[in-house]
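Collaboration report, partner site 2.

Our partner group contributed sequences for two proteins of shared interest, and the home lab folded both. The records are reproduced in the order in which they were received, starting with the first partner submission.
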Amino acid sequence: MKKRPPEFENAERWLVSYGDMLTLIFAVFVVLYALNLQASKSDARRVAGSMQDSFNTPLDDIPMNRMENGGEEAGKGSQSAVGMGIFNEFTGTSKRKSLRNKAELSTAAVKIVNDEMAKVNLILEERLYGPEKFPSGTGKGVERIVDISPTRSGFKVQLLARHFYGPGEVEIKRSARKDLDAVIEALKTLGRDVRVEGHTDSKPPEGNITNWELSTLRATNIVKYMINRLNFPASKLSAAGYADTKPIASNKTESGKSLNRRVEFHVDYDYSDVTED
């Protein structure tokens, strides 16, 4: 019986994958070329900035001294200690870089954000603490009730919840309304959009309520307070509750839990209005 000849083995199958890769690379360059022809300079700059941000900007991390094994003793005597400056923002164990490093922002845009953030900070320092009580960087953050720091879309004002609320309560303490009014009035002078966020620690509240409901009710009640009491434009407000999903400190220590129980006012900027063309 005649033997069947051996099947031919195609040793050049890699060319198929190689051809697909070349096709994808060609498509990428076609898209980039089209953007260069059709998009304005400001659009191209925003696209490039967004791509650079996606690849180069690290995610928000809890500092090492605020992790499970951090505790209250870790980082003692340093700027990274728990509670220093109330709500200091970090990436890893170092402070977050300034907005000046964001590729999509022009010099003029950065100046607007920083100037308005400084304006709000100055108003609150004078109204809440007096001109003789500006932060020195040496006291514990829990002694202060308000902190201001930059974000990727603007800046935020953070409030220590235990000063403004009783345990498990969603209405602002009457004794703390004057302080809340100072914050709202300072933000109102900017005429910007403001997003109010509620945050909790990991401990479930007492009664038939969850941390999701607690954080959301606190945020929405503040929005109603801003509209009804201080005539803040409703079209510029929004509210959100995040429960314990975005901690800024360890929930294994009391000082960490105190920092996680907070309300944040996010001032977000539409950079198409403040960037240079």
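Second partner submission, folded after the first:
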Amino acid sequence: MSDTAEKHRIVIVGGGAGGLELATKLGKKFGKKGLADVTLVDATLTHIWKPLLHEVASGRRNPGEDEVSYLAHARANHFRFRLGRLESLDRTGKVVTMAPIMDEDGREMIPRREFPYDTLVISIGSITNSFGTKGVDENCVFLDSRKQADRFHKRLLNTFLRAHSRVGELEEGQLNVVIIGAGATGIELAAELHNTARQVVAYGLDKISPDQDVKLTIVEAGPTILPALPERISSGVLKQLRHIGVEVLTGVKVTEVVENGLNTETGEFIPAAIKVWAAGIKGADVLAKLDGLEVNRINQLVVRPTLQTTHDDNIFAFGDCAACPQKDNPRNVPPRAQAAHQQASMLVKSIASRLGGGGTLPEYVYKDHGSLVSLSEHTAFGTLMGNLTGDVMVSGRIARIIYVSLYRMHLMALHGPIATMLKVVTQWMTGRLRPALKLH
């Protein structure tokens, strides 16, 4: 693509599920024909679907097999990729600024840069919300990014190796993992870790008893797990978790997290070597500093149904970083991958309208196709919603197959059906040769 100033400049900040799908579609539709300059900016060089991070953390999934190189994908789909982290915005000058990028030694690798735009789309996702709880930032693990998932996996393996090579008895809580937050992330991670403990023993760390030495606990401040899902699903999931030995504590508020465990509001101390905070989300701090754009109480950019920010028609935001209203529903659009996928598809039409000279932009209406929760290889639970099926509860093998298909739909949006089919077949073949658990 040339750098001619006449082209409409589209800058997308954030290459998550929605941002990368949008850049891919816009690149194919406008970039390939030279009708617009499409640039995607992200703080990392590779993309991995965020709902997979709990599998990366547990070692079930090798991220190298699922990551997408932004540079290679951009070249194949007619848009540009630039490495950068959102720092500031000048709405009058229509320029967005990226912070300098440092290398592993702390030296400046890429300087601060400015990107002029005609249409700016912000899709930087969300981060974990600690709600100001003492000790969380210092002593908890988060699963917001591939880097954090990799760090968790390495720490988990080191914990098992240290326990296996011990002399004498285990220390209190040495192989305990506490997950704070009983949403989908916390639930799915607990089930994966249950399998990981057994796989580790199978690969030779036989001084560890997964049933006696490893304790998995989920702590939830609310009265129930999976509060966003129907009670019949949450009760089914709870029953299965307890069946595999995961302790689930509801109505328990964490007041402080320390190095060797956590304290609760009732005065109980829960010992644990590894603490995972998965209790809520918020927008990144930078969103509150973007030249007066409106944010809500959890730092999400407030947008209209068109996904335009309330104070600037040239700036759109979507996905987890945006607070989008729903018609006839007091709650905003939930932070789910299916919402980001739907919004990305709508924004292609919106930007096409802008390039065509204006007109009324479409308004986003959230279509809830249901929710699924996977309990690793044990089972899955969820609901499917549609005009023909209504609200249908699914579980077991059928739910597990549907759950896996959601990721493949994301792959199809990025690569198309043929490449996705080849990728699935290749992973199936190589999966029969590699270990069931990532051991490094």
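Feedback sent to the partner group on the second submission included the following. The chain is about 30% helix and 25% strand. The CA atoms of residues 49 and 407 lie 8 Å apart.
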